[in-house]
Structures are given as structure tokens and as C-alpha cells.
């Protein structure tokens, strides 16, 4: 198996080439290392390879993985955030990419006020309109930012995030990435605000995303290979959804600690 550092160097080269094609600086693009379903040792491999941002899809997975991992990386939530996981998300993550409604923004602001937190977020936009995807409609972006500016003083919106429809051809994603950039530019101009971050592009289409303005590309498979398989385990009786892992102190709701890739729970990772 290839060393992660070698793979990261190759990916950075591809990002640099995409930046050159589009007249951008490679310094403007950062890799979010998506460690979903991998163990804490993969976080260390990413860190040792020079990656400084870890992306997780699930609050409950980060709840055990972050304490078990090397210190230093920023942790970004890139998956859907349920309202009953907001408190734990604010305690675990430095950045949330997936705010998809005014209701969720209000909840984040309320909990942040209790915690004395100042969360930085992106608005998730369903540019493609696919029913299977989370995210607000493009038309909702400006009103949501206006609401947050007026009613959610704890929150800083730094940009937008999207997922393109799956395709074997990376070029199929280009119109969706371009539309997100154009939408960002339009909202910036109308509201006179800065929205410097665009989170878009994954392992199969990140070069196109960079050409269209991505500042964060969310990469997992291209860096770490196929994700390990996990087995779903029945939740413990204490897991009522009030915390990401059942018992908020011990995370007992996960069950066992014999993981798919080294150390960590097998239960509830892919809920």
C-alpha cells in the first residue's frame, strides 16, 4: 500500500495544476482529509503527511475518534447535522460545513450562547435539486444569511458548501460547482459581506472543483483507499438520541471497542 505522504504529494500536484489552469494560487486550496469509518491511526497518518484539517460526517464518530487521535488538526463536520446533536457538534468541531436551514442556525446560535461558543459555519446548498441530498435551495441562501446576520450573533457564515450529483465523469460536476461560486459571488455583492470559503469537490471530481473556485476539497478515498466495512450493532438501552453516543460521559451507547481499522467502536457509525 502506498504511503499517505506520497499520495498527498501527488494530490497536491494535481491541485496545483488545476490552479494553474484557472489562474489561481495553490495556497488558496486546502484539503479536508475525510476519515469517515477509518480509525484514529489514519488521522495521525494524515497529520504526518501535512494535512491539517480532518473531516467527519457524523458527530457520534468524531466523539470517540477525536479524543483517540493526535492533537493538532482542525475538525470539520461535513455531514448532515441533526438538531439534537448540535451541542456535541459545537464541543467537538472547529467548523460546520452543513447548516441547511434557518431553524438549524437558530438552534446552533442558542446552544452556542449557552456554551459561550462562536461557531464558524458554511451553508449547505443543494444546487442540483436532488431530493436525496441535504441542503437548502439556492434561493434560500441570501434570506438565510440575512437572518443569521440579524438574529444569530454567535454565528459567522464563511461561505457555502455543495455536493455534485454522482457521475463517473468529473466534468459532469462542473456546472454545479460553477453555480455555487456564482451564487456566492452574487450574495457577496448584494449583501456586502465576505464569503471566502467554498467547500466542494470530492475524490472523483476535486480537480474540476478547484478549477471552479473550491477553497476546501473533501477527500477520503483518493487519500486512504476504500472505506473499511462496518457492522451495525444494536444501540444500548441508554441511547435515546440525547447524546451522540448514549452516555455522554463514557459513550457507552456505542457498545464494543473492536473497530474496523484499529481502535474505535463498530456500533452506530453509519446511522
The number of helical elements comes to: 9
Name the CATH superfamily assignment.
Answer: Alanine racemase
Tally of individual domains: 1
Helix/strand/pairing category: alpha/beta
The name of the CATH architecture is: Alpha-Beta Barrel
What is the 3D shape? Answer: globular
Please give the share of residues in helix. Answer: 25-40%
Number of strands: 8
Distance between the termini: 29 Å
Indicate the mean pLDDT: 88
Tell me what you see in this structure.
The protein is 37% helix and 13% strand. The chain is an alpha/beta fold and 271 residues long. The protein has a single domain, classed as Alanine racemase (TIM Barrel, Alpha-Beta Barrel). Helix 3 (59-68) links the parallel strand 2 (53-56) and strand 3 (74-77). Helix 6 packs parallel to helix 7. The radius of gyration is 18 Å and the shape is globular.
Spell out the key features of this protein:
single chain, 271 residues, alpha/beta, 9 helices, eight-stranded parallel beta sheet, 37% helix, TIM Barrel
Secondary structure elements and their pairing?
Blueprint: H1 4-22, E1 30-34, H2 40-48, E2 53-56, H3 59-68, E3 74-77, H4 86-92, E4 95-99, H5 102-115, E5 120-124, H6 138-151, E6 156-161, H7 174-191, E7 197-199, H8 206-211, E8 216-219, H9 221-224
Parallel strand pairs: 1-2, 1-8, 2-3, 3-4, 4-5, 5-6, 6-7
Helix pairs in contact: 6-7
